[in-house]
Specification:
By secondary structure, the protein is an all-alpha fold. It has helices at 8-24, 29-36, 40-52, 68-91, 96-106, 112-127, 132-144, 149-169, and strands at residues 56-57, 65-66.
Length: 170
């Protein structure tokens, strides 16, 4: 049985358990139901399925914990979610709620290569002195004012002036 191939629904349960365990050291089905906004009978079915795959330790009416394999898989899911959410909020200026919902939907389909590149892109933009946060700020303005060609002209002039100043200093 391949435990690395889970439905997006099962990944959501595993991620929810992971997050609750991080916060409280163990999860209860009630906690999972609240976190995912589902009824407890749905949680019970999912817990049985995850336990069969040996991703969680579960017995009815007891706490739920992750097995080492389950924890590793859940960490990966949680990491994908965090990278996507950070990209949406910090790079694209998407609101917290929409970013959270979109990251939750997209984390299941994003390839490892895509996430690795997004993570590198985020790091690049946050650290590169030639692009960095100025670029992100300009992008934010552009998103709010897409029909302002004068802003683009001002930006180009700023870049040219900066280059001219650097040449003078050399």
């Amino acid at each position: 049985m391949d435990t690395d191939v889970l439905s997006s629904n099962m990944e959501d349960y595993l991620e929810a358990i992971y997050n609750i365990v991080q916060e409280k050291n163990a999860a209860r089905s009630k906690d999972i139901a609240e976190k995912l906004g589902v009824n407890r009978s749905s949680v019970t079915g999912a817990l049985h399925s995850l336990a069969e795959k040996k991703l969680i330790n579960y017995t009815p009416y007891d706490f739920v914990t992750l097995t080492p394999r389950g924890e590793k898989l859940a960490e990966g899911i949680s990491h994908r979610h965090m990278v996507l959410r950070e990209f949406f909020v910090d790079m694209l200026g998407i609101g917290e709620e929409e970013a959270e919902e979109s990251a939750c939907r997209m984390e299941h389909a994003a390839s490892e290569l895509l996430l690795e590149r997004l993570e590198r892109f985020i790091t690049f933009l946050k650290t590169c002195p030639r692009a960095g946060m100025r670029w992100i700020d300009k992008f934010g303005y552009f998103c709010l004012n897409p029909d302002d060609p004068e802003h683009c002209e001002r930006c180009i002039m700023e870049c040219l002036n900066t280059l001219r100043e650097r040449k003078k200093d050399e």
